[in-house]
């Protein structure tokens, strides 16, 4: 089941809601990236951590990486913004 649409979307989400062609292009690129073995391994490791934290299958928070290599739960919006457009 797809996540609910945010009532307070970020800048990028607002852009893709207005530009359907750009959204389709982004999805094509993501599917190519997500099928790589190293990305599958990365997601498997995060899924294991979510399962240990009792979050798997319940929606809610993502697991985000810390500078020391550990993971902790944080909001999806905050986690996916890390290393994003305005960060230098």
Write a structural description.
It is a single chain. The chain has 88 residues and is mostly helical. The chain has one domain (14-81). The chain is 52% helix and 9% strand. The protein has helices at residues 11-18, 20-34, 37-53, 76-81, and strands spanning 62-65, 71-74. The longest helix is centred in the middle third of the chain and has 17 residues, at 37-53.
Report a brief summary of the structure.
This protein has 88 residues and is mainly alpha-helical. It has helices at residues 11-18, 20-34, 37-53, 76-81; strands at residues 62-65, 71-74.
- N-to-C span: 34 Å
Strand content: 5-15%
Strand order of the largest sheet: 1-2
Looking at the structure, what is the overall shape?
A: globular
Which series of helices and strands comes N to C? HHHEEH
Largest sheet: 2 strands, antiparallel
Query: What share of residues is helical?
Result: 40-55%
List keywords for this structure.
9% strand; 4 helices; mainly alpha; 88 residues; globular; single chain
Topology:
Blueprint: H1 11-18, H2 20-34, H3 37-53, E1 62-65, E2 71-74, H4 76-81
